[in-house]
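haha ok so turns out i had the wrong file open the whole time. this is the CORRECT one, sorry everyone. sequence first:
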Amino acid sequence: MLYALCHQFIQLQIEGDEIYTKIENNKPPMDSEGWTILLMDRASRFIWEISCGEKTELLFLRAMEPLAQVIAQTDELSLFTDGERQYGNLLFAICRETFHTGESGRPPSVLPKGVTVRIKNKGNQSHQPGPKRPKYQAPWREHPDTDTQIDDSDIHANHPEAFNSSLRRHLSCCRRRGALWANMYAKTPSNLQKRLDLHWPWHNFVNTHFTLRTTPAVALGILSDSLSWRALFRIQIVPT
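then structure:
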């Protein structure tokens, strides 16, 4: 992650989505600790964040903090989510800035220049009286110098949804069903996070994506060649 942040990115389009699995016991989804948040770059399929826990503000905050560091390295960044408003709310709280207009009164707070956030309003409101919400919405005020013209067809989280299906195939703790003797869930959130932490570098640096014909790290420009598991384990980390 730190090595990736050393590079300068001109433009990124990041999609956010969540996947749910059981932890230890079968609980209602909102009470489970098996929610996993994924932030993925659209063009390169590079995963910037994948973390699990209870679906609370703390989990979303943990995912938004690395994204704020990515924003500092880009001239333009767009975030598209499937309708969870906490993405935009917490991102605005972390990296908002004050825009001075020169007029009297309190200056408004806006997202950084070049940053756009779009969410999809969930549910059908056609049967409810009153004004209808737009299908896609910007949850917070954006910088006046930011280009906010985004086609509706570009506002989606299709790539994280496809990755979630792949994650269920690769990790038994994320599968919905299986053989009777198979363990279909993780015992603790830390065990689930360990499996996600191993899947993360494999997806970004080792596995060749079938549409890109290369690894996401190479497609994003972080590396010139793909890595192997042997090369990953030989990377030396200076203790802190």
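The first strand starts at residue 9 and ends at 20.
again sry for the mixup
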